[in-house]
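To illustrate the input format used throughout this study, we show a single complete record. The first block contains the structure-token representation of the backbone; no residue identities are included at this stage. The design step must infer an amino acid for every position from geometry alone.
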């Protein structure tokens, strides 16, 4: 399985936080690599510079 990056806001009204947590927990049971960052107040698609930086860091690590 390819590594997953999951960025999710707790207050996302389009995708429940429980759905995001399943995306974290299920691969974890298979020891699949994943990185999860939870944001309390970013809503749905509330992309910030910090999130973009996290994504870039994730991509850099995967390309090593």
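Output of the design step:
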């Amino acid at each position: 399985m390819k590594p997953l990056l999951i960025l999710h806001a707790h207050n996302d009204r389009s995708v429940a936080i429980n759905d995001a947590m399943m995306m974290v927990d299920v691969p974890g049971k298979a020891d699949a690599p994943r990185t999860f960052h939870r944001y309390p107040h970013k809503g749905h698609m509330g992309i910030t510079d910090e999130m973009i930086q996290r994504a870039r860091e994730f991509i850099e690590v995967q390309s090593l």
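Structural context for interpreting the output: Residues 4-62 form one domain. Helices lie at 17-29, 49-62.
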